[in-house]
């Protein structure tokens, strides 16, 4: 049974922002610390900062040869069963970090030449060079370090989706970056059968870590060593049948230098430019979030039922008395439609000290398509949506209302969702006037436009480009 089923949310995974895990077992995905760097919001920044602070504290303990401190820091890490993520069979029980493995992890880190020599800079570097450190351990360590932000996320989404929480629950250990120590508090969390539930944004999970020791070894280290052998004209060099072309095989390089993390550390120390190149290639090349198909395969859950989502919206009558139903239907459809480009939907966000509210706000984490382009050229860290379940025509008041939500820091792009237009071209001209006056960019979308967007998503196998939105935006700046 999944979270959505247990709490009878009336939703499926595509319309949920969190991973809809099996409450009795584990879902085969991991939290990748690098995925957190894709989030351009305070939540993502806090998570990244916590991880960096914790790992630098560990590295300082290694440098100072403070075994007691290092072991105590790692001993606080526990198997994060409350997320129900990982590779356990049957009931969730964790795989990686626990009391017995904490000392082993510390021993591996503290005795590693990679740590002593300064090769390790980030937590994910450990995957490449520390014996016994694999993706599941990194995911568990990451979960422990960012437990406080995850609890806040869980509380926010519990309120958003109507999931009940239990007060005065022990939070588990939380990392304090100022005091560089662990602490705990009593807080509210969902509890199922006396077990805490920690919700995880689906935008930060992956089926495999981006840092991959096998790929680093084969594609970077062996390749560089092969080039060195070829340049030095060593015994590994041989001529092809043409008698001119010199070649070195990677398998011969592997036989000469060996394999394993000890070899990786040794040769990376001898040739630090290899790791520099790997980091440089990874620095601006992040693995995108799992799309609907990826999550469906990992969980065994259905992909979006687009026609049903749109029909549920269309079936709602116009009028203010149906606004709440309409807003919920819009949010469910857009959350599925714009994922993974847009994440973390929030309703009725207060701004200007609570004097104004935004119907829906999304975080822009796009790695391609229209929303990525928008973020590259305009202020769009957040995407704002206003829902208008009117039976009458929209006018300047609605445009002014949306324009009042914009700011250079929050973002200056929004979408007005409504039922239909009597004179759509006139409203687009008003939107163009708003843009020309420097008051932000607004795209109007009605029921028929939503069908166009759905057809685009159906036609594109991977993350949708949203060419229709691009064409709508072009009308604002023409």
Structure in words:
This protein is α+β, with helices and mostly antiparallel strands and 478 residues long. It has 3 domains: 3-206, no CATH class; 213-283, no CATH class; 304-477, 3-Layer(aba) Sandwich (Restriction Endonuclease), CATH 3.40.91.30. 46% of the residues lie in helices and 13% in strands. It has helices at residues 3-6, 42-63, 67-75, 99-111, 113-116, 125-129, 135-145, 147-161, 213-232, 250-257, 261-270, 273-283, 292-299, 306-314, 323-338, 369-377, 396-403, 424-436, 447-459, 467-477, and strands at residues 30-31, 166-170, 174-176, 181-183, 186-189, 191-192, 195-196, 205-206, 238-239, 246-247, 342-351, 356-364, 382-388, 413-418, 441-445. The strands form 6 sheets. It has a 5-stranded mixed β-sheet with strand order 11-12-13-14-15, with helices on both faces. A two-stranded antiparallel sheet has the order 1-8. It has a two-stranded antiparallel ribbon with strand order 2-5. The model is unreliable at 89-96 (pLDDT under 50).
Concise structural overview:
The chain is an alpha+beta fold. It is 46% helix and 13% strand. It folds into three domains: 3-206, no CATH class; 213-283, no CATH class; 304-477, 3-Layer(aba) Sandwich (Restriction Endonuclease).
Q: Could you state the oligomeric state of the chains shown?
A: single chain
Helix-strand category: alpha+beta
Q: How helix-rich are the residues, as a percent range?
A: 40-55%
- Give the C-alpha Rg: 26 Å
Number of spatially distinct domains: 3
Number of helices in the DSSP assignment: 20
Low-pLDDT segments, ≥5 res? 89-96
Secondary structure tally: strands: 15
Strand content: 5-15%
Largest sheet: 5 strands, mixed
Question: Shape from CA axes?
Answer: globular
Could you tell me how far the N terminus lies from the C terminus, measured between alpha carbons in angstroms? Answer: 52 Å
Mean pLDDT: 90
Order of strands in the sheet with the most strands? 11-12-13-14-15
């Amino acid at each position: 049974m999944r979270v959505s089923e247990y709490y009878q949310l009336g939703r499926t995974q595509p319309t949920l922002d969190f991973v809809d895990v099996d409450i009795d077992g584990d879902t085969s995905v991991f939290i990748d610390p690098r995925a957190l760097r894709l989030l351009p919001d305070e939540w993502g920044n806090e998570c990244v900062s916590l991880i960096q602070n914790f790992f630098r504290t560990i590295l300082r303990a290694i440098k100072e040869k403070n075994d007691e401190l290092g072991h105590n820091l790692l001993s606080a890490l526990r198997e994060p069963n409350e997320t129900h993520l990982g590779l356990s069979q049957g009931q969730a029980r964790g795989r990686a970090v626990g009391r017995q493995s904490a000392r082993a992890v510390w021993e591996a880190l503290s005795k590693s030449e990679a740590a002593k020599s300064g090769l390790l800079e980030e937590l994910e570097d450990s995957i490449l060079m520390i014996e016994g450190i694999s993706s599941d351990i990194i995911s568990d360590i990451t979960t422990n370090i960012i437990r406080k932000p995850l609890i806040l996320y869980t509380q926010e989404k519990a309120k958003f989706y109507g999931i009940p929480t239990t007060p005065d629950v022990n939070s588990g250990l939380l990392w304090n970056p100022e005091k560089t120590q662990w602490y705990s508090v009593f807080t509210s969390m969902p509890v199922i059968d006396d077990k805490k539930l920690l919700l995880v944004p689906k935008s930060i999970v992956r089926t495999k870590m981006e840092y991959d020791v096998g790929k680093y070894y084969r594609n970077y280290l062996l390749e560089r060593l092969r080039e060195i052998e070829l340049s030095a004209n060593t015994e590994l060099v041989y001529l092809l049948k043409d008698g001119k072309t010199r070649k070195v095989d990677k398998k011969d390089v592997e036989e000469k230098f060996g394999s394993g993390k000890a070899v990786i550390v040794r040769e990376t120390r001898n040739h630090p430019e290899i790791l520099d190149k790997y980091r440089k290639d990874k620095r601006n090349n992040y693995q995108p979030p799992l799309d609907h198909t990826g999550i469906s395969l990992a969980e065994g859950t259905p992909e979006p039922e687009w026609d049903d989502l749109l029909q549920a919206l269309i079936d709602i009558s116009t009028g203010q008395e149906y606004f709440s139903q309409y807003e919920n239907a819009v949010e469910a459809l857009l959350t599925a439609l714009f994922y993974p480009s847009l994440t973390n939907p929030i309703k009725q966000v207060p701004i200007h000290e609570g004097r104004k509210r935004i119907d829906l706000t999304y975080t822009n984490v796009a790695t391609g398509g229209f929303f990525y382009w928008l973020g590259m050229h305009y202020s769009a860290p957040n995407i704002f949506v206003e829902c208008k379940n009117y039976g009458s025509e929209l006018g300047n008041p609605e445009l002014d209302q949306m324009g009042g939500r914009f700011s250079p820091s929050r973002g200056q792009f929004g979408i007005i969702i409504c039922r239909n237009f009597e004179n759509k071209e006139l409203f687009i001209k008003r939107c163009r006037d708003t843009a020309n006056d420097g008051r932000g960019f607004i795209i109007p979308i009605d029921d028929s436009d939503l069908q166009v967007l759905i057809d685009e998503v159906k036609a594109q196998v991977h993350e949708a480009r949203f060419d229709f939105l691009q064409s709508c935006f072009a009308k604002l700046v023409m």
